[in-house]
UniProtKB/TrEMBL annotation:
Organism: Mycobacterium asiaticum
Pfam families: OsmC (PF02566)
Entries under Gene3D superfamilies matching the protein: 3.30.300.20
Protein name as it appears in the record: Osmotically inducible protein C
Length: 137
């Protein structure tokens, strides 16, 4: 399993790390050049949907198909949640008949519903635990 952690690099600014060597800059909306935690959650959802639909789309559209997955959703600041996230997969389907398009939509939705771990987790909810570890000793 990949280890993940964030380290504070300044006021409301962190760097996220993985044991595989990846890094991402995280901070509040008023900090330039960073993602907010909510933005990262949305990007994770969009990337998961894209990756989950990649093979079925490549089989039907070719290995070099272009895709963009957009995700949006405003935060409810009173409750501090995102009550709704909307995803939109943008594809060029001009080479498909109407029947082929309809079948593709079914296959893509099934693939995402079956294997997108991020989407499945957000839809079902999850238990989150938190603890403070005193490392001073």
């Amino acid at each position: 399993m990949t280890d993940l952690w964030v380290e504070r690099t300044g006021p409301r600014r962190y760097t996220g790390h993985s044991s595989r060597g990846a890094q991402v800059l995280v901070g509040s909306e008023d900090v330039e050049g960073v993602f907010t935690p909510g933005e990262l959650m949305k990007i994770a959802l969009a990337a998961c949907s894209g990756m989950s639909s990649d093979q079925p789309l490549a089989r039907r559209l070719g290995d070099d198909y272009r895709a963009t997955v957009r995700v949006s959703g405003a935060a409810d600041r009173e409750k501090e949640i995102y009550p709704r996230l909307d995803e939109k997969l943008e594809l060029d389907l001009s080479g498909l008949s109407e029947d082929e398009k309809a079948r593709l939509l079914v296959v893509v939705n099934r693939a995402i519903d079956a294997v997108c771990t991020v989407g499945r987790t957000l839809k079902s909810g999850t238990t989150v635990t938190f603890e403070v570890d005193d490392v001073s000793t």
